[in-house]
Amino acid sequence: MSSVQVQDLIFHNDHSLVSDAVLNQDSQSYLSIISHEQGTSPSWLLNSLVENSLVGSSNLVNSELKRLPNGKHRSHVYFISFLHPLEYYSSGCVKNGLDITKMENFTFVDAFSKLFTEVLTDDGRDQEIQLKSFFKEKISSVVTDPKSTVFVEFPEILLTSTSITSNVLLSELNKINKICRQLFIICGQDYPQSIDLSVTNPGDSIFKVSDFLAKLYHKSQLNINLMPLPTGRAKDITGCITISKGTVPYIGTNLQVVEREYIYLVSKDGNVKLFFR
Amino acid sequence: MSFRKRSDIIGAPPAVPRNPGMVPGRPVGAGAVPGRIIPSRPVAPGTGVARTGPVRTSSPSQSQTVEILQHPGVRPSLISSSPTISTGSSDLDSILLHQGLPLGASLLVEEAGTTDFASIILRVFASQGVIHNRVEYGPQNKREFNSHVIVVGFQSQWANELPGLYKGSSRDQKKANIAANEKKISVSNLNDSRSPVSGANDKEMKIAWRYGLNKKANDSGENAPSAPSESSSAEHYTHQFDITQRLTPAPASQEVSFVSITSHQYKPILSQIQSIITGQLKQNSNKVIRLVIPNLLNPSTYPPQFSQSATIIPFVHCLRALLRKYPRNLVLISSISLDLFPKETNLTYNLETLYDAVIQLQPFNQEMSQLIEKAYKNEPAKVSHGLVHIRKIPHLSERGLMMIHDGEYAFRNGKKKFQIEEWGIPVEDDSKDEAQTTKNIEF
């Protein structure tokens, strides 16, 4: 592996991760899906994308991207997590040279700590009303900066643990997408535990998640998938990251997704190395 | 001319004469009988001894971390330096890579088949917490209620079956019993001690080669069992447990709390757990609380409604939130049967997502067991009982490292310990069969 050249991660033909062409749009908004499997958590990628959206650089995965001078910011980042508290992301971003707890253009929406104790307190159909209220009050009203990037992590827990349908969740995420420039949705995608398109029972959690993801893929511009090697565990390879076009093009720009496949290695000290596959 | 120690205050009243055999600060009677450990009385809130130490100007979380590291059962992780506790099994601590389970993290033990090896791990985990209450540590040999165990879904009977400390092999125990009997005041012992022929010192002189052995035994006897690690700061970090023994004295109510499953809703259980945690931390803010949930979703304990995703996932999600709320005090361990909830189901998948560490025990089937027993018929101590698959490791899996190890480790449940070691396929030795061939070989 030492003889193979380390590559920079890029998503678009302008050698960017989160492109200026996306952030500087006036009317369009775009959707990207980051899917992963058990064993290939995208934590390092999220931290890099947050860094890139905030300050322009992406130290761990792309050395060509440079930080904006004079402390300028590229966009406002809103991070909505159903899986982790703020401390998890703030400690992770330290490696990227960011203290997100002190950054004005970073807003964390905690959908984790009190999700089932204060947000979704009722059972049954009222949960849909509560969820809509939560998205409206805690998220849509918070995302005020039009030039913004929004991350939503682990939204599928709403499908597996409540009576909320995939269409309701898609509708709420769609509303968020419209008020920001770039929306990243981070989902687990393990077959057959999480998605299985052969399941037809509408009440089944797997059906709901499969339906949610399938519909989401029909709306996205960019899909990023992280998965372990199909041959099993290797000491010098963590997994494989696949960049592919979504079904919808980047309307209003000349931006193209550079479809590539990398193998990557995450070391215990948090460094990431990418190689072409 | 009289001499005073430097630390004595001139003009102060004379110090109370020391009582021979008593250790200052130690309650009367404690330690009078070797090996007996009497837990100290619970300290009322606000009346406890104030912690001494340098004035800290660091952030509250940093100072909390420093304080919790003074706990005898806590030490920094080898990977992340975060405070970590022992699971009670040193081998399990090793495969978790942190040398234990980091505080604020959770461990799910999955088990396939009809065996119940997972309960051994959970009981040892609970025992380790109870034992930490009973150790003397620090320069003043203080003993306090520094740990608490919360058991969900079981009654006090569960705690009565916790394994006791491993006291050595049967030979060692016999020696210890003989030594203890010799120390007792009895007519025969007094006669023995007066008799010049059968005195203890004379016994040692019977055979010359025993001198060396006795010397070694004396050396180890004086210092054992804690001497080898006395100097280390983590001497009480982990203990060895004997599953054939019971923890004595049985855990008291200050050491273990029980939360029963009384309804099909998770919120009452959660509020009970929350109130116990709050109460325990009021007594001692540096207390380590071990939350134990054996046989999660087992139909004998949990109502059927609990197995629905709409109940169990919010429950575990709330527990995860509790762990993040008390990152310096709370740890969680659970076990679940994969026969009831197979790995392919969405429920188990979501549980694995919500737990920080996941291991799977896969006992060998009968054919494999017979093969291994045959291969190791001369070394029964090497016979493994099943495989250990690692799914998630705290902190590392979340940070994106691929930590799935399938079939790389095997476990063996013995009297001494729950042993986990690297798995290698045993080679069957057929050389004898070949040697005993009865065919006539013509050249």
Pick out its properties.
heterodimer, A: about 280 residues, alpha/beta, Rossmann fold, nine-stranded mixed β-sheet, 9 strands, B: about 450 residues, 2 domains, three-stranded antiparallel β-sheet, 13 helices, 14 strands
Q: pLDDT under 50 segments of chain B (min length 5)?
A: 11-58, 217-231
How many β-strand stretches of chain B? 14
**Structural class category of chain B:** alpha/beta
Query: What is the architecture of the largest domain in chain B at the second tier of CATH?
Result: 3-Layer(aba) Sandwich
Order the strands across the largest sheet of chain A as they lie in space. 3-2-4-5-1-6-7-8-9
CATH class of the largest domain in chain B: Alpha Beta
pLDDT averaged residue by residue of chain B: 79
Organism (chain B): [Candida] railenensis
Region (Disordered) (chain B): 1-23, 40-62, 217-237
Family (chain B): Belongs to the ELP4 family.
Biased composition (Low complexity) (chain B): 224-235
Overall description:
The complex is a heterodimer of chains A (277) and B (443). By secondary structure, chain A is α/β, with parallel strands linked by helices. Chain A is built from eight helices and nine strands. Chain A has a single domain, classed as Rossmann fold. Chain A has a nine-stranded mixed sheet with strand order 3-2-4-5-1-6-7-8-9, sandwiched between helices. Chain B is of the alpha/beta class. Chain B has two domains: 60-166 and 239-425, P-loop containing nucleotide triphosphate hydrolases (Rossmann fold); 171-229, no CATH class. In chain B, strand 1 and strand 2 form a beta hairpin. Chain B starts with 59 loop residues before the first helix and ends in an 8-residue tail after the last helix. In chain B, 35% of the residues are buried. Mean pLDDT of chain B is 79; it is low at 11-58 and 217-231. Chain A binds chain B through residues 38-45, 83-85, 87-88, 92, 112-117, 120, 123, 154, 157, 160-163, 188, 190, 192-194, 204-206, 209, 228, 232-233, 237-239, 266-268, 270, 272, and chain B through 79, 267, 270, 309-310, 313-314, 317-318, 321, 324-325, 327, 343-350, 352-353, 391-392, 396-406.
